[in-house]
Structures are given as structure tokens and as C-alpha cells.
Amino acid sequence: MPQVQSESSSESAVQPLLQQFQLLFYISKIAGILPQDLEKFRTKNVLEKSRNGMVYMLAMLIVYVLLYNVLIYSFGEEDRTLKASQSTLTFVIGLFLTYIGLIMMGTDQLTALRNQGRIGELYERIRQVDERLYKEKCVVDNSHIGGRIRFMLIMTFLFELSILLATYIKLVDYSQWMSVLWIVSAIPTFINTLDKIWFAVSLYALKERFEAINQTLEELVATHEKFKRWLCGDQETSSRALDSSQPPEYDSNLEYLYKELGGLDMGSLKGSGRNKVAPVSHSMNSFGESIEASDKATHQAPPISVNMAHESELSNASKVEEKLNNLCQVHDEICEIGKAMNELWSYPILSLMAYGFLIFTAQLYFLYCATQFQSIPSLFRSAKNPFITVIALSYTSGKCVYLIYLSWKTSLASKRTGISLHKCGVVADDNLLFEIVNHLSLKLLNHSVDFSACGFFTLDMETLYGVSGGITSYLIILIQFNLAAQQAKEAIQTFNSLNDTASLVGAATEMDNVSSTLYDLVTTTMLTPTG
């Protein structure tokens, strides 16, 4: 019975993580990102498969694809003349990047459709981890997760509306009714952002659980250090109490207190060990005895020191071994959850990183083309305005950088557990605890988790540095190709103009020759005598 009561109390005390995802779930469900059952989530806060949700999600995907193609056809008049007016390189880049947003959106939705059963199991494992941490007095607060989700949603709507409205007002001919289709251009990035909010918040929750384990180990170290300091201070106090040959020291600032309590002046107190004034707080001591009665007992027996510090768990290696083992097992489970999460979102992360790299490079390249008064693809007309370009690049790069940074910090938090565990062994300075720590450290070596994009590259700061260098390199190459293409086009135009001029000069010369021949013929005929 007590065990059942403790389990039920832990379940009631632990707040499910999915309870904070309600607003995000409803928006994602309406947008057609998640196929899970709406009623089950509303009543039980669980993610379960739903046939109706799957049909709705596929229908929304088909509608998005059709609307996006209609958008491309409606605004494609500029693209039809792009190949004739600009280089083939600009035309091919624009044609490929026009559909990369649609490919990214399709990857997100199809991946969510494939993993609809496994995502629910993932959050159930997180709930079980929270219960195990609660039993070890390691409580994880999920209340601020909802605020983080709301902040991300607000930033998403602000960026999407800013880019959409600024482009529509500045660069779209909104006098035509077909211009309303420009709203469809924001659908792929909006759906992708909602999907990545799920991944980012879940990843942040894992990082918090790693940090909770690390904080628990650090608290064990801090408590043991306080306990050791208390022991050292208690021993010094005991030695001073046993040495009664030294007279007590009095503070001159408390002269008024001495006079009030004992009716003595400082002169009678200095250098005298016979006259002592005991500070009185009330007429009864802490044991309920009168001061006069307890005064005799004080002279007869030495003072007894009371242990006011909490006993450290690290002082008993056999008792703390179970707790350290449980924390390491929970750490292993969190790492496995992180690996499963990375596997579920591996293709969407890869498509986002590819999209971010290509769009960032292409947007800067088309911005350069716009400054040179060159034609650019219709869906990239935002590059004609530097202010809109900055907003669009900040939005795209912000998603990529935040996911990379959060993955890197989560990996570091998982690896820091071994350091915190070794601190426990160092501060305890016990052979048995050293053996326990060394044994658990070997397990932690295999518990580290690293996040990657389908194994192509790891999501850490080194990758961010490499991507930044790659964008710079490819941008320079594209500008050089564009310059070469423009120079070649100018050379061809110059050559054609020279040919036209030469042909005109040749025609004029031939006309002069014909005219002179006719003149000679007429002159000869007129001067020849008849007869």
C-alpha cells in the first residue's frame, strides 16, 4: 500500500510535458501538420494515431501543392522572359529554388505522417523519466515551456506577416485580383517553422532534464562540503570550549549592554576572568528550566554541541550508491530519447539546413542582381528591397542557428554529467565511493548523445562555422560567374553591333561603286560620236 500511494503521488505531482503543447497542437492540427487524434489529446494529453487526421493531412498537402503551382503560374510571366534576358545560371537557380520550399514542406508533412505513432511513445517516455526523477527528489518544472512556445509562435507570426505584407505592398501589383495568391508563398515556411517548434521545444525539455541531473549531483557536492566545514568548525569550537584559561573577550561597542545586564563597567571587565556576564534572552532556557537552576548544571558539565547541519548523503557510500545508479540510468534513458528524437526529425532537419543554405546564398545573389538592374525570379522579388531581404534572411537563419545551438548545448549538458559525478568522488574522498564513481563513469561514456542531419553533419558550432564559410565562398563564385556572363553578353552585343556597322559600310561602298559605274557608262555613251 505505501508503495502504491507513493507512485500515485508521484504521478499527480509530475506535470505531463504535452500539457504545455496544447496551443501549438491546435494550430498544427488546423494547418495540417500533425495527423494525431484531436479528441484524445484534448481529454488525455496523449498523441495517438487517427485515420481521419491522416486523411485531413493528405488533403491539406494536396491543396497546398496545387495552390503553390497556381501561384508560380500566375506570377511566372517574369520567369518566362528571364532566360532570354539573363544568363542560364540565374534561370536554373531560380527554377530550382522556386520548388525547394515546397519540397521542404512536403518532407515535414510526410515525415510526420510516417512517425505519427512513434511521436506519442516519445513523449510517454519523457513522462516516465519525470516520474523517476521525482522519486530521486529531482523535480523538473514544465510550467515555463508553455511560455516559450507562445513566444516562438508570436515571433513566427511577426516574421511571416512582416515579410508577406512588406513584399505584397512594395513589390506586388495588388490592383489585380490574382495578387491575393501571394499569400500562398508564406505557407511552406510557416508549416516548416511550426514543425521545428515541436522539435526545438522537445529538445529544450531534454536539455533541462540533463541539467536537473547535473544540478542534483552538484547539490550533493555542495551539501557535503558544508558538512565538512561544519565538522571542522565544530572541532575548533570544542577545543576553544575546553581551554578555560583564557578570559573572554569583550567588545567596546557593547559597553552599554554590559552595564545594562550586569551593572558593571568596562574597567571591571577588562583583564578579568572572574566577572563574567551571561547574555539573557528570557527567563527560561531552551530546555524549559529556569536560568538559576540550569546555571549550576552548566558549571558542572561541559557544553554539549548540537549538530545543526544536515547529514551529507555522500558520507555514506553504501546509501548513495543506489541514488547515483538511478540517476545514471535515467541519464541513459534521456540519451536514448534524444537519439530517437533525432531519428524522427532527421529528414526535416536535413531539408531545413539545405533550404537555409541555398536560400541564404540565393537571396544575397539575387540582391546583387537587383542592384545591377538585372531580372530575378518572381518568387524572389523580395530581394529587390534590402530591408525585406534582411528580415527574410534573419527569419531563415534564426531557425537554423537556434536548432544548431540548442542541439550543441543539449549534447554538452549530457556530457557534463560525468564531470559532476567525478566531483562527488573527489569531495567525498572515500575509496568505496571512488570505485562506484569509476564504474558509473564507464557507463556514462556510452551515454553521450550527438544530433546530426541524417548523419551527413553534426549539429554543433563547428558546422555553423563551416556553413557560414560555404555561403561566403559560393556567393563569391556566383557573382564571378554572373560578371563573366554579363561581360560575355556585352562582348557578343558589341560584336553584333560591329558586324551590323560593317555590313552597313559595305552596302554603302557597294552602292558608291554601282553609282560610279553607271556614271562612267553614261559619260562614255554621251561622248562617243555617232555616225
Write the layout of secondary structure elements.
Elements: H1 2-13, H2 22-31, H3 38-44, H4 51-74, H5 77-80, H6 82-85, H7 88-114, H8 116-135, H9 143-171, H10 187-242, H11 255-262, H12 266-269, H13 291-300, H14 317-344, H15 346-371, H16 386-428, H17 431-445, H18 461-527
Helix pairs in contact: 2-10, 4-7, 7-10, 7-15, 8-14, 9-10, 9-16, 10-14, 10-16, 14-17, 15-16, 15-18, 16-17
Function: Gustatory receptor which mediates acceptance or avoidance behavior, depending on its substrates.
Keywords: Cell membrane, Membrane, Receptor, Transducer, Transmembrane, Transmembrane helix
Membrane topology: Multi-pass membrane protein
Short description:
The chain is an all-alpha fold.
